[in-house]
Amino acid sequence: MSVIMDGRILSDSLTKIGLNEEWLNSKLKKLGTSTDRIYLAQVDSQNKLYLDPFDDNMRKH
Question: pTM for this structure?
Answer without folding.
Answer: 0.86
